[in-house]
UniProtKB/TrEMBL annotation:
HAMAP family linked to this entry: P5C_reductase
Protein name per the record: Pyrroline-5-carboxylate reductase
InterPro entries for this protein: 6-PGluconate_DH-like_C_sf, NAD(P)-bd_dom_sf, P5C_Rdtase_cat_N, P5CR-like_CS, P5CR_dimer, Pyrroline-COOH_reductase
Annotated Pyrroline-5-carboxylate reductase dimerisation domain residues: 167-265
Protein keywords: Amino-acid biosynthesis, NADP, Oxidoreductase, Proline biosynthesis
Pathway annotation: Amino-acid biosynthesis; L-proline biosynthesis; L-proline from L-glutamate 5-semialdehyde: step 1/1
Record family assignment: Belongs to the pyrroline-5-carboxylate reductase family.
Limits of the Pyrroline-5-carboxylate reductase catalytic N-terminal domain: 5-107
Highest taxon in the source lineage: Eukaryota
GO cellular component, one term: cytosol
Binding site for NADPH: 65
Length: 275
């Protein structure tokens, strides 16, 4: 595909994150134009303020959606999951059956999204994507996999990391990739509170907790070791760390986190069953 146009239908948190990642990268073939669409004028103004770039065009409203899709080779769908049928009704006359749809929606399946086009890629990503340190799990409709998998991975890679998975695992990925940043933030917040509780100034507690999270994740990544192995290396017999870990186990933190991922995945699965 050369000199192609992308229409981002729903350029909110995630639509902007993906757009930003594309703008900050230089893969080939690079899009000639990205048309960012929102529902309201106010959101369109916010997008305009965010992206001052020659390939970016910003518009809002139903007529703009239609016009953007008529020009697009690739549609990135970034609206809320319950809106996809409304958006489809708005743009269906501009669809040509050849376009590639990249969906960022939780829950909604490639089969449901095939009303737009047979070429569907479903991407589950997260808000850290805005900073180029996101994660994405990607699956494809049969038609899209053959024709577009390479291009989709190039477009998505700049958000951080991207892996292809089978669609039956997408609800698990929705929980672990999409929702888990909120779980991590809860842990981060608790660590800061713990530091403050024991007398650290807030700023010091915040910086310490952030660096501990960042550094620990990097250590696991770089060493390739299982987290349990690295954890055991921090535990001096009868020391401070094993004492703290015992308290976390008493509080059910491990099973709480496992169940949180399970619950998020079940809710994601229920979204598509409800329709
Ligand atoms: N946020 C996350 O962490 C996260 C993680 C994983 C997956 N997701 C998925 O990502 C999707 C988007 O989430 P988000 O957090 O980015 O939502 P968001 O910030 O609310 O963005 C939604 C965007 O859709 C626009 N929109 C609404 N109706 C439209 C229409 N008819 N035509 C064109 N644009 C329209 C909105 O414009 P207005 O502002 O003008 O209404 C807004 O720009 C969701 O489907 C969600 O499942 C989100």
């Amino acid at each position: 595909m050369k000199d192609y146009t992308i229409a981002v239908l729903g350029c909110g948190n995630l639509g902007s994150a993906v757009t930003n990642a594309i703008l900050n990268s230089s893969f080939e073939p690079y899009p000639a134009k990205i048309i960012c669409c929102t529902n309201s004028e106010k959101s369109a103004e916010n997008v305009r303020a965010k992206f001052d770039h020659e390939i970016i065009e910003v518009s809002h409203g139903i007529d703009s959606n239609k016009a953007a899709v008529a020009k697009a080779n690739i549609i990135i769908l970034g609206c809320k999951p319950y809106m996809y049928q409304t958006v489809y009704e708005q743009v269906k006359d501009s669809l040509n059956g050849e376009q590639l749809l990249i969906s960022l929606l939780a829950g909604t399946t490639t089969d449901e999204l095939s009303i737009f086009t047979p070429y569907v890629a479903k991407v589950m990503t997260n808000t850290p994507a805005q900073y180029g340190c996101g994660m994405a799990a990607v699956c494809f409709s049969k038609e899209a996999e053959a024709k577009y998998s390479e291009l989709v991975m190039k477009l998505i890679q700049p958000i951080g990391s991207a892996v292809q998975i089978v669609e039956k695992n997408m609800d698990a990925a929705t929980a672990l990739v999409g929702s888990a940043p909120a779980f991590v933030l809860l842990m981060l917040e608790s660590m800061i509170d713990g530091g403050v509780r024991m007398g650290l100034p807030f700023d010091v507690a915040k910086e310490s907790a952030i660096k501990v999270m960042e550094g620990t994740a990097k250590m696991v990544l770089d060493s390739g070791e299982h987290p349990a192995v690295l954890k055991s290396k921090i535990c001096t017999p009868a020391g401070t760390t094993i004492g703290g870990l015992a308290k976390l186990e008493d509080a059910g933190v491990r099973s709480g986190i496992i169940r949180a991922i399970e619950e998020s995945a079940l809710i994601s699965a229920s979204f598509s069953k409800k329709k």
